[in-house]
Amino acid sequence: MASLRIMLAIAAKCKWPVYGDDVSQAFLYAERPKDKPMWCSYPAGHRKQGHCLRLHKMIYGLKDSPIEFFKLVRAHMTDPNGQGFEQSKTDRCLFIKKVLKTSKGPSVGANYRPTTTTASDGVLDDKYHYCFVRVHVDDFLIAGDPHLVADMRTRLRKRFAVTGEVAHMHYGLDIDRTDTTVALSARPYLARKLTELGLDKVPMYNTPMSPHTNLPNQAGRSVQ
Questions:
Q1: What are φ and ψ of residue 42, in 5° steps?
Q2: Above pLDDT 90, what percent of the chain?
């Protein structure tokens, strides 16, 4: 969550739009590891006596599908001849790209000059254009220089079937954007969960204790 907050704070400071892209049928892109073969029966109506099927792709419902798809995404994002991002060393789901500024602005395509970076750079260097991408399963949250963002999203669509627009939600959190601020809210998520638990009609009460109360650390009777 720290990287998400930092990324959105930088986007707000730089007045960058934030985009959310989603890969359709994501797990089906990942190959089944050859050292971990998996077999399954034919679908109903197509069964052959004495025969079974071998999976060549990852499918939904398998515990290793998410990590295999992430490996595919990581290879795509860090390909020096493709996206040219570097994976953050502190948050493996964050990918960063910076390109040296030129008098004509950032070059797009073959003329890109990607350079290495880390998530610990601190303040952004004015000599570079930046693009940040945060991945959660099949959801991509993207912010940065408009030219870099446009190039990244174009390359992503050439590799995967992708839908997306300006981000309004990520990781179950609502994103409320103004010209200078970005706010995260879990209110819609909590409302859905309360409805699922049948608690949406329960009367609301204020917290029965002041949130500023400082409880001293002292010994007391153990609660059995």
A1: -70, 150
A2: 38
Cβ–Cβ under 8 Å, residues 5 and 132: no
CA distance 187 to 95: 28
Give dist(CA 89, CA 25) in Å, integer. 28
Helical (H) or strand (E) element with 131:
strand 128-136
Predicted structure pTM score: 0.74
Tokens 């990287």 appear where? 3
- In the chain, the amino acid numbered 64 is D
Integer Cα distance of 145 and 133 in angstroms: 12
10 Å CB burial of residue 160 (0-12, 13-18, 19+) is buried
Structure tokens at 136: 């959660």
User: How many Cα atoms are found within 13 Å in the side-chain-facing hemisphere of 8?
Assistant: 21
Q: How many CB atoms lie within 10 A of CB 193?
A: 13
Evaluate whether 65 touches 58 at the Cβ level (below 8 Å): yes
CB 30 within 8 A of CB 69: yes
Answer whether 157's CB lies under 8 Å from 39's CB: no
- pLDDT tens digits along 170-209: 877 888 888 778 888 888 888 888 899 888 888 877 766 7
Query: In angstroms, how far is the first alpha carbon of the chain from the final one?
Result: 36
DSSP lists the bridge partners of residue 87 as 95
